[in-house]
Amino acid sequence: MALWLSRRVVLWLALAAAGAGCASPPAPKELVQSAPRKPTVVFMTDFGTANDAVAICKAVIAGIAPDARIADITHQVTPFQIDEASRFLYGVTPYYPAGTVFLVVVDPGVGTSRKAIIVKSQKGQFFVLPDNGLVSAVIDRDGLAGAREITNQSWMIQAAVSSTFHGRDIFSPAAAHLAEGWDYTIAGPEVPQLVRLTPRTASLDEKGIAGEIIGLDDPFGSLITDITREDFETLGYALEDKVVVQINKKPATLPYVKTFMNVPVGDSLLYIDSRGRLAIAINQGNYARKSGVEPPATIFIPKKSAAPSRQTKPGKSAPQR
User: Fold this and answer.
1) How does strand 101-105 pair with strand 208-217?
2) Do 130 and 249 have their domain in common?
3) In this structure, are 179 and 211 located in the same domain?
4) Is the four-CA dihedral 252, 204, 277, 80 of positive or negative sign?
5) pLDDT digits (tens, 9 = 90+) for 26-62
6) 318: which of 53, 125, 176, 305 is 20 to 30 A away, CA to CA?
7) What is the H or E stretch that residue 298 is in?
8) For 254-283, what is each residue's pLDDT tens digit?
């Protein structure tokens, strides 16, 4: 009897081992479906960091969309400077995917008749911001898919709306609802015409190019101009040339070089920055502080002159042959 039982146990174990060998292997990790990621909310303001405004807005987002990721562009936009914020937004958006929600609060008209809006670009990105021109440059480049005014109370904070803190009460809740997958077309009525900023562009003529200092590359104090690489190249300068630049009508001679270390530490330089704009810097220094120049300021660069012909000294005639 014992022998018969032991034989049955051995047979059962053998069958179990064979069955285990035929079982399908576990699916590799990369084939296991995971929950879709929530869109990123990309946040920019002129609130600064000396108060609790940014933290409150993020808390509102977290309360509505706890799984949303929040990334910051900056909260150090020069107060009330819509042009500056528009430039930052234009530079950042190409690096984010479709579905990203950009929350921008630079809003000198808060509490007035200006609209709070959601804009969708043809790239599939969303912009929650005041209708004051902030998104003009992005839409000019990427195209407009639609725009809605935020009037639906369900998209706002579920409390009394302040007349001075729409970042907390309207824009942050709306951005959070977008991150949760809400349809932006139910936020309110269509906006047929967006407020536009007038783009700043340098002017080129037979004498040279006239433009503006439109910003600083802080904390380095480099001057950023509205002169594009393409426009500058029409002036005829080559790398290593000395270029006479007039800033606020005061001349300065700068070497045109590729990067900072092409000049000695402490020397000034003219270069094309990473966004394709002409800029002025000091190698390991602060040009704005040293020169006392801050935007807004004017800049003029003449066309490169032909090499001057050799002239005889005054009072002496050329030798006759």
Assistant:
1) unpaired
2) no
3) no
4) positive
5) 544 444 455 567 899 999 999 999 999 999 999 999 9
6) 305
7) strand 297-302
8) 999 999 999 999 999 999 999 999 999 999
